[in-house]
Amino acid sequence: MDVSPNGGAEATAATTFAARAQEATRHLYRQTSGLDGQGGIGSTAEVSEVLASLRLLAENVGRSLPELGAWLEQRMCSGDLPPRGFDAITRSVFDAASALARAQNLIMQLGQELGAAEVASRELLA
Q1: CA 11 to CA 6: how far, in whole Å?
Q2: 8-17 pLDDT tens trace
Q3: Dihedral angle at the C-alpha atoms of 106, 112, 115, 116, nearest 10 degrees?
């Protein structure tokens, strides 16, 4: 779903924040991959800070999804939401939850790989 103010969604504080988050994560990807021409991440401290921020981002998204679901339920029960709107929003909530789950799986895999690399590094130093 396009959340940019010009993407058809009503421009509210929530859509503005969502558009800014989308832009920030796009820029983060370009920076970490070196696509912006600046060479990517420069230090382990920077990697650690980026990963901590991404963890908090995932937690905040996870906290937002139930609120969006509650909004959807309220509108549905009050009859303020046409069936097409309900279907579109339900699909969007599901897509967001699925993307968050994929991100959490990637984080778990990365954590396991980093743990294995740490063990191997300690064995090499011993």
Answers
A1: 8
A2: 556 699 899 9
A3: -120
What DSSP assignment string belongs to 59-110?
Answer: HHHHHHHHHHHHHHHHHHHHT-S-HHHHHHHHHHHHHHHHHHHHHHHHHHHH
3-state helix, strand, coil in the chain (%, to 5): 80, 0, 20
Question: What is the C-alpha to C-alpha distance for residues 97 and 109, in angstroms, rounded to an integer?
Answer: 18
Tokens found for residue 80 = 């303020």
CB count in 10 Å sphere of residue 81: 19
Cα separation, 72 vs 125, whole angstroms: 55
Q: Which residues fall within 8 angstroms of residue 104, CB to CB, at 6 or more apart?
A: 58
pLDDT score recorded for residue 9:
53
Query: Residue 38 contacts by C-beta under 8 Å, 6 or more apart in sequence?
Result: 31
